[in-house]
Request: fold
Amino acid sequence: MNIEEFRDYCQSFKGVQEKMPFLDVSDKYSRDVLCFYIGSKWFCFVNIEIFDFCCLKCAPDRNLELQASYMGIKPGWHMNKHHWISVYFNQDVSDRTIKELVQQSYDIVYKSLSKKEKELIGKYKVA
Reply:
């Protein structure tokens, strides 16, 4: 999977918006981070220049299990290690598994949104 395929997949979910919120920071790596949002919350981010890993929201009860099962899944970079994982591309995590984890991250974040935000998202057309 390349950055274009990954981006298209993340954007395929209902109501997803993308932003690059760190353009003003001094760290080049962080400036190149693209975040995918559902409502006001992000569910995934990835560096668009290096494309080495994505960071995803994860159910705490699966977090350690996934890290024990895959060399390419680590604690979330710059995020709460209990709720986020970093999933490295081109390691032992298949594209299919990455997509499943992105979907789960989207679902976890969507469920946490307010009723008002969910209603707004419901007005988006499905891609």
Remarks:
- The helical segments are 3-11, 28-31, 60-69, 95-112, 115-122.
- The chain has one domain: 3-112.
